[in-house]
């Protein structure tokens, strides 16, 4: 009996020892994902909230998936145009500024050109527009998805244009809009977006579109919205970045003129 009890005691001790050993060998729980600071509290908070987007659906293909599936092919003679961009496009109520036009909004707030490149086929090419009007770059300058060199933004622009040209879609590249810091709401957005980088990117865009082989048109919103200090006119954007009704009222006829010119050049 004593031998049996002794054996049982040894077995229990051995089991407990093995359990403790296995537990000690288990890796420590992974630390919560984090991203490097940008130096701007507001931008850091935005990027932290977007971790799931950056890891699970970088291009945000799910945003317009159902709408794209429900959209019929263009009718004969339909002058379909896609407005493609970030939040400035996303908040633009195209039906109010271009009534009865076959214009489709495919803007997504906060996006950068790498994200737009990911979704360009699904949200532009597959919709078979005659023209795409692109407004992008301000969030690249801000670093929404990480630091971006101007030459890398320019490379994304060129790649998007290559894709459009290969699919017989006329490209209108909009200038990056100016920004201002005239209100408390505008100061953080302004600090993230160097006016010098905006000017440099616009100069490259204008030159690229002027290239004889690129087949792109340049739409200069900047010159119509900038003040004598080189900033966005105060009354055109309450937060210094996103146009208000007065801002879109200036942009709409410029966009329409560029679209009609592109459509005319696209006709046989």
Summary keywords:
globular; Rossmann fold; alpha/beta; 9% strand; 50% helix; 5-stranded parallel beta sheet; 13 helices
Describe the structure.
The protein is α/β, with parallel strands linked by helices. It has a single domain (41-266), classed as 3-Layer(aba) Sandwich (Rossmann fold). 50% of the residues lie in helices and 9% in strands. It is built from 13 helices and five strands. The protein has a five-stranded parallel sheet with strand order 2-1-3-4-5, with helices on both faces. Helix 9 runs parallel beside helix 11. The protein is globular. The model has no long low-confidence stretch (mean pLDDT 89).
- Whole-number total of structural domains: 1
The CATH C-level name is Alpha Beta
The string of secondary-structure elements, in order, is: HHHHEHHEHEHHEHHEHH
| Unreliable residue runs | none
Corresponding CATH architecture? 3-Layer(aba) Sandwich
The strand order across the widest sheet is: 2-1-3-4-5
- Percent strand: 5-15%
Looking at this structure, what is the CATH superfamily? SGNH hydrolase
Gap between N and C termini: 103 Å
Give the overall silhouette.
globular
Mean pLDDT comes to 89
Which bin fits the share of residues in helices?
40-55%
CATH topology: Rossmann fold
Number of H- or I-type helical stretches: 13
Count every beta strand, where a strand is a DSSP E run of 2 or more residues: 5
Main sheet attributes: strand count, strand direction, barrel closure: 5 strands, parallel
Output the structural class. Answer: alpha/beta
Task: From the alpha carbons, calculate the radius of gyration and give it in angstroms.
Answer: 26 Å
């Amino acid at each position: 009996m004593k031998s049996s009890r002794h054996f049982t005691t040894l077995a229990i001790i051995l089991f407990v020892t093995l359990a403790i050993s296995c537990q000690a060998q288990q890796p420590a729980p992974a630390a919560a994902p984090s991203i490097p600071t940008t130096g701007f509290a507001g931008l850091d908070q935005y990027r932290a909230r977007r971790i799931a987007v950056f890891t699970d659906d970088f291009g945000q293909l799910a945003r317009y998936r159902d709408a794209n599936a429900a959209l019929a092919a263009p009718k004969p003679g339909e002058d379909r145009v896609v407005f493609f961009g970030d939040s400035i496009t996303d908040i633009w109520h195209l039906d109010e500024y271009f009534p009865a036009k076959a214009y489709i909004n495919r803007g997504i707030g906060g996006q950068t050109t790498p994200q737009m490149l990911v979704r360009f086929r699904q949200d532009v090419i597959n919709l078979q527009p005659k023209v795409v009007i692109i407004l992008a770059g301000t969030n690249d300058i801000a670093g929404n998805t990480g630091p971006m060199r101007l030459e890398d933004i320019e490379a994304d622009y060129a790649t998007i244009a290559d894709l459009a040209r290969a699919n017989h879609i006329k490209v209108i590249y909009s200038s990056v809009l100016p920004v201002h810091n005239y209100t408390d709401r505008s100061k953080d957005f302004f600090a993230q977006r160097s006016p010098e980088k905006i000017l440099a990117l616009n100069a490259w865009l204008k030159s690229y579109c002027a290239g004889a082989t690129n087949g792109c048109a340049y739409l200069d919103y900047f010159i119509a919205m900038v003040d004598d200090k080189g900033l966005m006119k105060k009354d055109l954007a309450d937060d210094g970045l996103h146009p208000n009704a007065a801002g879109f009222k200036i942009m709409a006829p410029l966009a329409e003129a560029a679209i009609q010119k592109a459509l005319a050049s696209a006709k046989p």
